[in-house]
Specification:
Elements lengths: L7 H19 L13 H8 L3 H15 L7 E2 L2 E2 L1 H11 L6 E6 L3 H6 L10 E8 L2 H6 L6 E3 L3 H8 L3 E4 L3 H14 L3 E4 L12 E4 L2 H12 L1
Parallel strand pairs: 3-4, 3-6, 4-5, 6-7, 7-8
Antiparallel strand pairs: 1-2
Helix pairs in contact: 1-4, 3-4, 7-8
Length: about 220
């Protein structure tokens, strides 16, 4: 895979760079006279990354994708319309993937209507909850199911990613059900570490840890 040729820190920076470029385009900073270009100096100002690091990441990206540097950008800056698709392809984000929300409490139900413009490469396919009444009452752009239908629905719809929004004590069991049903990636919002089988990747998002990390950086 192209991703294997790019270090994990560089992958994280490229994701953030892609978001900056997308915001740049959404703000209307485009045009035929090259005004859409974003320079490494601008990226340095917004992120704090050294310009050499930015240039190195993009050079590595282009080398991994077999692209000549001049076709993406140069001294005048980098063109979002060219660089965004290249980043997506290199990081495996160039195909549409289905995801579901497991646990429809306050957090989970909020994600049922989470649809920023940059989410185009993902499709909310289903939501699940143990509370049948909640499933029937909540409004959602995607169909909602009781959790006992989780395995059948995930398999039938080809859902690959699960947003796990359940209490900590239920997270491991819910993650195991998702993995058994064919889920390949879990975004876990519960403050617990998950034990998952090979081939299933988890990313933990815990607000307390983020606050602690922020406090450390502030000092």
């Amino acid at each position: 895979m192209v991703t294997d040729a790019i270090s994990e820190p560089a992958q994280e920076r490229l994701l953030q760079l892609m978001r900056l470029l997308e915001n740049h385009v959404l703000a209307g900073n485009t045009g035929p006279d090259n005004k859409s270009a974003v320079t490494s100096a601008q990226v340095e100002h917004l992120t704090g990354w050294p310009r050499d690091t930015i240039r190195k990441d993009i050079s590595c990206l282009m080398a991994a994708g077999g692209v000549e540097g001049g076709s993406i950008g140069g001294n005048a800056g980098y063109e979002p319309e060219l660089l965004i698709p290249l980043i997506k392809k290199a990081l495996g984000l160039d195909c549409r993937r289905k995801f579901c929300v497991v646990g429809l409490g306050r957090l989970g139900s909020a994600y049922l209507n989470f649809a920023p413009p940059e989410l185009a490469e993902f499709e909310l396919a289903a939501g699940f909850d143990t509370n049948v009444n909640r499933v029937e009452i909540l409004k959602s752009p995607a169909p909602l199911y009781p959790v006992y239908k989780l395995a059948e629905v995930i398999s039938r719809l080809g859902i690959e990613i699960a947003l796990l929004c359940v209490p900590a004590e239920a997270a491991q069991a819910a993650a195991e059900k998702c993995a058994a049903a064919g889920i390949k990636g879990i975004l876990n919002f519960a403050p617990v570490a998950l034990a998952l089988p090979p081939g299933v990747t988890a990313r933990n998002v815990y607000v307390v840890d983020e606050l602690r990390s922020l406090t450390i950086k502030m000092k």
